Every structure is written in C-alpha cells, then in structure tokens.
Amino acid sequence: MTFQRIVNLNGYQAAELTLSNRSPLPVWYTGNTAENPVYDIQYSSGNTWEDSGDKWCVMGLESFQLASQQSVTFTAFVSFDERAARGVRVGVLCSPQEDYKAGVGRMYWSEKFTAPK
Fold it and tell me: pTM score, two decimals?
C-alpha cells in the first residue's frame, strides 16, 4: 500500500493510495467497487497506532480479485484533524482466498503520512 498524495473531492480532502499486489498469486479484498475497497484508518500515538473508530456498512460489499503484479488506486477520506498531525496510515485487508472466513487475511498498511499544512 502506497500513499500517493492529498486530493480534494467535493470540497473534502482525501488521501489517494495505491494497493499493489507484488506476489506471484492473486489476492482478494472487499469493497463497494474494485476502485473503492474497504479500508481502516489508524492515527499515530507515539510508538503505537490507534484505530479511527470509523466503521463501514457491509451492505452491498463484494469481493474483488487483484491479479499478480496489478494495482488499484483509490481515495480514503481521512479526518485531517489534530490526530492526523501526528501521522496517519490506511490499511486494506487482503486474502489469498475469496472466502474471508478462512481466516487467512492480512492487513496491508500504507506508510505513515501527515495532514497537509
């Protein structure tokens, strides 16, 4: 997961990120569309990370396959408040299997980035 830049969407700031599959096998992730994955946001708290507490509605979510050596770019709406000034990261849960109940998913996090000045 790679942070690209901050973009403005409809008057709101959002983080543009790219999820890349560098493995030799496809991986699966959940989202509303292939370009809108479900993501988690965490804020830096010194040596640890705190969950944002933001939750997704699971209605209408689908599984999407990201083929080997492919990428998808998406935007994540981040609250650029005092928490983001300490650093923020965005993560997407990926699995080698379409069925997430298998319990083999792994969260892939972006690098730490900060709110725009």
Answer: 0.89
